[in-house]
Amino acid sequence: MSMLSRSYGPELRMEVLNAKIGDALEKTVSESKLRLAGSPNVAPKTEGNDDSVVAFTATFEVYPDVELPDLSTLDVSKAKSDVGDAEIQRTIDILRKQRVTFVEREGRAAEDNDQVTLDFEGKIDDVAFDGGTAEDFAFVLGQGRMLPEFEEAARGLKAGETKTFPLAFPADYGSADVAGKTAQFTITIKKVEEGVLPEFDSEFAKQLGQAEGDVEKLRADIRGNLEREVSSRTLARTKASVMEALAKAVSFDVPKALVNEDAEKRIAAAREDLKQRGVPNADTMPIPADAFTAESERRVRLGLLINELIQAEGLKVKPEQIRAKIEEFAQSYERPEEVVRYYISDKARLAEVESIVLEDNVVQHVLAKAKVAEEQVSFDDLMGTAQ
User: Could you tell me if 371 and 76 are in contact, meaning their C-beta atoms sit under 8 angstroms apart?
Assistant: First the structure.
């Protein structure tokens, strides 16, 4: 027994102490009706206590008392956007442009929407620089892929023609080696190809998944998809307005532990995004938490407010609401019944949908009580296609 005591005694004593401290803390917190936010910082308290007593202090943050604002005083914008024949045609034109084919035209002077293939060489102070030289480089004029001076120089040239011109790199250009400097470029056009759009016909309909090649059925499908997308985006705008109004209506301190937790999640998401973009050392490069603190504090405060509103007003989610939201998602897919099964078969995915529906319920509840101004949003602004 003495050997076991020497070998395992300190470890077992620590286990027992931790369990007793945990029980004591839980009892005190429960009796005081406190809600802990984050992990407590526990420290021994020896002053005034003999060896037979184990005493400790626990320092922790608690959830704040949230006072709901008067929803009738909130100013909220409700977004609205129309889907008519013009918007349907615009969408059809975009679909056609996405399937453009390029046909070489001899003797054609390059113009916007043509694809040009060229060789180029750039020099700064008569010295070539990395990334400044290429052969058989192809791009479509007028899409902003190249700097304006580069596109302007290529515009109007024919195959076989050469042009030399100065190009001033912006001060914030992606490559620090050339940012803010002026280079001399020489380009030689190898090929000019005209963009040819497909006709909106039976063959085009088949390419877009309309097996029968029914053009009018395709047009109806496009209208339905567009109306769902517009509805989703206007709801997102309205939701943003509601959340902004709620955030401005309250002011209370939020636990730093929750803010730090949210900031850490955002940093992790930022690293994942950098990895997806192919940025090297994304896992180790420094990302300051301070960059996220203000937004994380806002998100935590808004989350606490919304939770209080849900509890106070009983804004529960009904099973039929979840089913309706899933079916709404599924309508955008070729086999909606498979999408419905995909969501229903997984509790985590169902929880995500429930969270979305719960937010929608909060938005509708606020809209029913707040001062609402209808905001007419142009189709271009809503879809992000404005020039």
Answer: yes
Rounded CA-CA distance 263/299 in Å is 10
- What is the average pLDDT score of the chain? 91
The list of the chain residues with pLDDT below 50 reads 386-387
Are the C-beta atoms of 71 and 366 separated by less than 8 Å?
Answer: yes
Q: What is the pTM of this model?
A: 0.71
Spatial CA neighbour of 165 closest among 150, 181, 145, 177: 150
**Helix, strand or coil for residue 197?**
coil
Q: At the fourth CATH level, which superfamily is domain 71-90+205-383?
A: Trigger factor, C-terminal domain (1.10.3120.10)
Phi (first) and psi of residue 257, to 5 degrees: -60, -40
CA distance readout (Å), 27 to 18, 58, 344? 14, 13, 40
Tokens representing 115? Answer: 């694809």
Please give the pLDDT value at position 308: 93
pLDDT digits (tens, 9 = 90+) for 143-176: 989 999 999 999 999 999 999 999 999 998 878 8
Taking the domains of the chain in order of start, what are their residue ranges? 2-62, 71-90+205-383, 100-196
Rounded CA-CA distance 377/375 in Å is 6
Q: What percentage of the chain's residues is helix, strand, coil (to nearest 5)?
A: 50, 20, 30
| Beta bridge pairs of residue 168 | 182
Helix (H, G, I), strand (E, B) or coil at 134: strand
**CATH code reported for the domain at 100-196:** 3.10.50.40
Q: Which amino acid is at 330?
A: A
Question: Which three-class secondary structure state does DSSP give residue 372?
Answer: strand
DSSP annotation of 214: -
Q: 48: how many CB neighbours lie within 10 A of its CB?
A: 7
